[in-house]
Write a structure and sequence with these properties.
Largest sheet: 8 strands, mixed
Strand order of the largest sheet: 3-4-2-5-1-6-7-8
CATH class of the domain at 10-195: Alpha Beta
Distance between the termini: 23 Å
Oligomer: single chain
Number of strands: 8
Bound molecules: adenosine-5'-triphosphate, magnesium ion
């Protein structure tokens, strides 16, 4: 699959208030699909739990950190690490993010800092990163509607919401969409929800089928047609620090295909949203 026409850097936040709703897993696997499609990709882990950077990519922050760049309105370049996948980069989370999240570190214009840092990176690509701009930036958000999530939403063109369709997950979904609406209203009027992605669900069970139906009735076309089924293969791929599309073995190919289908749908929506 070729990337086709390249375009300016676009930013997607992957967010949901609900913990464990597959935000990090979605970010990790979508990054793999985008890389496979020929794009240059930067993942930003803005969750102090450090799941995406440390656990999934196996990369820790060094002395140049995301939190320092946010606090000082500095350069992101030296805090970005290459991964073992050429063209795929990670900006890992660090402990300093906790004090930004709690409000302990007060920053003037605090919600706007990531956008400011990313705008600088887009306009002056870093020599350490090959001076080429990124095609896509994916931001993995924490499971909270706090200043870190708002920074991500303010810096983004699109929001992707992985959904746990069960009762608790649906409540959190409403709150998450409300938070996106306030980001649009106060900071980022062009921000668009690109889709709700039902994830980690077993559609062979009657219960999961019925709760998926409820989400589709509530949110209509906003919900992606593709559902990412629950499987140990998905967990194994993250454990092996290898996005599904790069996992060897037929047992992974079904799940890799699900994420490729997700991207097909999202790519169409991006076209539609700009059309
Ligand atoms: N399709 C799937 N099949 C099986 N397990 C999955 C699937 N998607 C995610 N998981 C597992 O569910 C758990 C939560 O996933 P993940 O860490 O991606 O969620 P999260 O929303 O980022 O969590 P948090 O809110 O803590 O950041 C992980 O153990 C992950 O491996
Ligand atoms: Mg996570």
């Amino acid at each position: 699959m070729g990337a086709g026409r390249k375009f300016m850097t676009r930013v997607i936040s992957v967010t949901n208030l609900k913990g464990g709703s597959a935000k990090s897993t979605t970010t990790f696997n979508l990054a793999g699909v985008l890389l496979e499609a020929g794009y240059r990709v930067l993942c930003i882990d803005i969750d102090p739990q450090k799941t995406l950077g440390e656990a999934f990519f196996g990369i820790q922050a060094n002395n140049k950190t995301l939190s320092a760049a946010l606090i000082n309105d500095g350069l992101l370049g030296s805090a970005i690490h290459a991964t073992q996948f050429e063209g795929l980069y990670i900006l890992p989370a660090d402990d300093g993010l906790k004090s930004i999240k709690s409000g302990q570190t007060l920053i003037e214009g605090g919600e706007l800092r990531l956008r400011s840092c990313l705008t600088r990176l887009k306009n002056q690509p870093d020599p350490m990163l090959g001076l080429k701009p990124f095609d896509w930036v994916l931001i993995d958000c924490p499971p909270s509607l706090d200043r870190l999530t708002m920074n991500a939403l303010v810096a983004s063109d699109y929001v992707l919401i992985p959904v746990d369709p069960g009762a608790g997950g649906r409540g959190a979904l409403g709150d998450t969409i409300e938070y996106v609406t306030s980001a649009q209203k106060w900071y980022n009027p062009t921000l668009k929800i690109i889709g709700l992605l039902i994830s980690n669900t077993d559609t062979r069970t009657v219960y999961d089928q019925s709760v998926v139906e409820v989400v589709r009735e509530m949110y209509g076309d906003l919900v992606c047609k593709t559902v990412v089924n629950a499987s140990v293969r998905v967990r194994e791929s993250s454990e092996a620090q290898t996005p599904l599309v790069f996992c060897k073995g037929n047992e992974y190919s079904r799940y890799a295909a699900m994420y490729r289908n997700v991207w097909q749908e999202l790519a169409q929506r991006v076209g539609q949203l700009h059309g």
